[in-house]
Amino acid sequence: MTETGRHVGILGTGSYLPEKVLTNADLERMVDTTDEWITTRTGIKERRIAADDETASDMGAAAARNALANASIGPDSIDMIIVATITPDNYFPSTACLLQHKLGISDVPSFDLSAACSGFIYGVSVAKQFIRSGHAEHVLVVASEKLSAITDWSDRSTCILFGDGAGAAVLGPVDNGGILGEHLGSDGSGGDLLYCRATASRVNGPHGVSPVAVNTLQMQGNVLFKHAVRLMTDAALTVIKPLGIKTDDIKLIIPHQANIRILNAVGKKLGIDAETQLYLNLEKRGNMSAASTAIALAEAVEEGRVEKGDIILLDAFGGGLTWGAMVIQW
Ligand code: ACO
Questions:
Q1: Which of 53, 87, 93, 279 is most buried, most CB within 10 Å of its CB?
Q2: Going by DSSP bridges, is the β-strand pair 164-174/311-318 parallel, antiparallel, or unpaired?
Q3: HSE-up of 120 (CA within 13 Å, CB side)?
Q4: Averaged pLDDT, 133-158
Q5: Mean pLDDT computed over every residue of the chain
Q6: Atom 32 of ligand 1 has which residue's CA nearest to it?
Q7: Using CA atoms, how far apart are residues 45 and 33, in angstroms rounded to an integer?
Q8: Protein residue whose Cα sits closest to atom 3 of ligand 1
Q9: pLDDT on residue 198
Q10: Per-residue DSSP letters for 190-216?
Q11: CB of 276 within 8 A of CB of 234?
């Protein structure tokens, strides 16, 4: 099949958050920290935690159902499923296959994509290529994370950051606008700055089968902080410049919700008005890796912050190292 060159856009978004809320006050009772330290250093006040038996595919399926309803597309019309996650239910089969079954979809390619916090943007980019080339009509991209399963709950430098949840988007052809451009990148030389040696979230976690240092996320936070500011700024400029888009033209930047200080630094370097142009939900959600950008997008749409014709910028950075930025005309 030849390249169609058609426009590809997001037809609907959805999200899912587990019920349990873990506040900074709760964390004060678990590790040597304070609400004041967490709030000023990260901007996070609370995060959601999945139930013990709730998996990435469960949360992803719930977000996907919302996205399908929002796009007015039935599961039968989906012809590819991509799940971005670093906390898959199992080592294999893929979380995407489990999610496919939960949605009652069959016979379509389904696969997981591992790009840590940049996973949703990577997934949307892959989906775009299939639709643009005519190899798929509607692709479901889900980003779902159960980071609580790979968190060392005795490590105060990481356990205060992360939360669980899922976001989803249905992509398809659009008459005009849609995804105007994207930039993806990686640098494996930074792989040791953020990693988890074992990842099957069903058996993982501090109570899992391997030692905590093996089955939990390990991070050099202050080194990553500097990379995050540089790479998110560079990714944003790399994608907007060739499109002739100025930061003033961007209605809303929807970034990976890593840390308020990282996002304010990126906003300052880009010269945007953080008050009006930066979408933040980390205060109530924390950092949910790949799910962060997907949920932030779904919530921004739901809140009416993104309207037809608006130009938005997704921007993320994460373990790998990976990064990605994408401009979408809604
Ligand atoms: N409460 C109180 N004190 C703490 C806590 C805590 N929860 N955590 C660390 N500290 C202490 C440290 O022990 C240290 O004390 P010391 O000076 O006596 O040694 C001091 O606070 C400063 O520690 P830093 O690590 O330098 O603190 P920093 O200001 O860098 O903040 C943080 C830490 C929040 C982790 C920050 O570095 C950060 O957000 N980094 C980026 C994380 C990130 O973006 N990761 C990539 C994306 S996630 C993904 O891909 C899954």
A1: 87
A2: unpaired
A3: 36
A4: 96
A5: 94
A6: 221
A7: 13
A8: 33
A9: 77
A10: GGGGEE-S---TTT-STTSSS-HHHHS
A11: no
Band the pLDDT of 197: cuts 50, 70, 90.
Answer: confident
CATH number of the CATH domain containing 66 = 3.40.47.10
What's the number of domains the chain is made of?
1
CB 326, CB 156: distance < 8 Å? no
The reported pTM is 0.95
Strand order in the sheet with 252-255: 178-186, 322-329, 311-318, 252-255
Strand residue runs (E) in 78-214: 80-84, 110-113, 139-146, 164-174, 178-186, 194-195
Q: Which two tokens stand for residue 217?
A: 């996320």
Mean pLDDT throughout 170-192? Answer: 96
In order of 39, 151, 157, the CA distances from 33 in angstroms are: 11, 16, 9
Query: Tokens for 229?
Result: 């500011």
Question: Under DSSP, is residue 187 helix (H, G, I), strand (E, B) or coil?
Answer: coil
The catalytic position among 24, 66, 70, 117 is 117
Tokens, residue 254? 């929807």
Rounded mean pLDDT, 146-168 = 96
* Distance of CA 72 from the midpoint of ligand 1 (Å): 43
143 within 8 A of 102, measured Cβ to Cβ: no
φ/ψ of 307, rounded to 5, equals: -125, 165
Question: Do you know the residue count of the chain?
Answer: 330
Averaged over 184-209, what is the pLDDT? 79
Domain extent, residue 99, equals 1-330
Pocket of ligand 1 (CB under 6 A): 33, 37-38, 41-42, 116-117, 156-157, 160, 194, 219, 221-222, 224-225, 228, 258-259, 262, 287, 289, 318-319
Q: Which residues contact 260 (CB under 8 A, 6 or more apart)?
A: 42, 43, 44, 280, 282, 283
Q: What percent of the chain has pLDDT over 90?
A: 92
